[in-house]
Amino acid sequence: MLRPRGPYADSVDALLLSLRAAGFSGAPVPAGVTGDGRERLEFIEGDVALPPYPDWAQSDEALASVAVLMRRFHDASGAAWSPELAGLAWSAELADPAGGAAGLAGGAGLAGGAVICHNDVCLENLVFQDGVAIALLDFDFAAPGRPVYDLAQFARLCVPIDDEVSAARLGWQPADKSARLRLVADSYGLDLGSRRQLLEVMDASIARGGEFVRRRVEAGDPNFIAMWEAMGGGERFDRRRRWWSAQRQRFATVLR
After folding, report:
1. Are 81 and 145 in contact (CB under 8 A)?
2. CB atoms within 10 A of CB 162
3. Distance of alpha carbon 141 from alpha carbon 95, whole angstroms
């Protein structure tokens, strides 16, 4: 697989190699750079879901399999953690504001709480085989952070934690979203303290919603401008904040 080499490619290469050394096969490893500067990555056979998302990608089985894959990824990232890896340059665009200093509360945490998170686990960045997630793609936004932060961003995108208008525009079908968030927590293995933390991270993420997209729009990125217009501009994020405020207690109750 060939792709443009990003500004943090050296750090991402180091992460991918360290994950493979830790026994994690759910991410491609770098395989060199072409003469025109593109990076070559291992090809992982499978299916990638694009919007409007197909039915198989919206199943509870697919969602649970991603949570299991993320737990394996975080375990491997924690095992591979080193001061050298943490000290590399990482993207700050989608990174955990709390950094890597604090891990999951309670027994589901990793040693020291220090991992490199993916930060953009969406259906477009996953490889599935027979409806089961087997690999993560596109680590451009990877950075040190809390596993629960990474999990919350995935849940926001793939439960999805979003109002029905915005979700439908991406092809999501109506579903019991609180039950799907509970499925993510159960499949990952979150204890009660970590589930409370998951909700707190979700609160902060939704409150900040739109900042990243707006920065890309203001920078003139045509892809983000098109998405901004298609999804309703800033009103999309205001609508989600109102929806979350009205629905949050239901999610909190189901997660107990």
Report:
1. no
2. 23
3. 7
Please write the tens of the pLDDT for every residue from 201-222.
999 999 998 787 778 777 888 8
**Token pair 């589901």 in the structure block, residue:** 108
Q: Which domains does the chain have, with CATH numbers?
A: 46-255 (1.10.510.10)
- What is the per-residue pLDDT across 34-44, written as a single tens digit (0 to 9) for each? 888 889 999 99
CB of 68 closer than 8 Å to CB of 188: yes
Which whole-number Å values give the CA distances from 233 to 189, 203, 213, 214, 227, in the listed order? 36, 21, 10, 9, 8
Q: Are 242 and 209 in contact (CB under 8 A)?
A: no
Q: Output the DSSP codes for 111-131.
A: GGG-EEE-S---GGGEEEETT
Tally the residues of the chain: 256
Q: Strand pairing of 115-117 and 143-145?
A: antiparallel
